[in-house]
Amino acid sequence: QLQASGGGLVQAGGSLRLSCEVSGFTLDYYPIGWFRQAPGKERERVSCMGYSVGTTYYADSVKGRFTILKDNAKNTAYLQMSSLKPEDTAIYYCVAGRRPGRDDCSGDLHWGQGTQVTVSS
Fold first, then answer.
1. How many Cα atoms occupy the beta-carbon half-sphere of 101 within 13 Å?
2. Can you tell me the distance from the alpha carbon of 117 to that of 86, in angstroms, rounded to the nearest whole number?
3. Residue 108 phi, psi (nearest 5)
4. What is the DSSP string of 23-81?
5. Most CB atoms within 10 A, among 6, 35, 39, 57?
6. Do 31 and 21 contact (CB within 8 A), yes or no?
7. Strand partners, 37
8. Model pLDDT for residues 24-51, shown as the tens digit of each residue
């Protein structure tokens, strides 16, 4: 089970940190990531951290502004978002792979409930 939190309303240029608390499995062995979906737009993969050290992915739209982090001791992942833009407004979903040892956030995934991020101009 994935429990996402940390969304809210922030002004452009501001920062937010999303959290994804994992229960039922040990996050250390699985890829973890974030998707988002804005109204009227397709779902977008934002970031993913794979099982192997150093395997991280960021969408071009967030590179240099977002950072994915993981605390294995807390079994929790984070998405640190800075320099937020109005176009970052979306529902953000935490995902985790169902197969251990993978480095991508694709295929069969656990999905958490979304958390709304709204960036005002």
1. 0
2. 10
3. -80, 115
4. -SS-GGGS-EEEEEE-TTS--EEEEEE-SSTT-EEE-TTTTTTEEEEEETTTTEEEEEE
5. 35
6. no
7. 91
8. 999 999 999 999 999 999 999 999 999 9
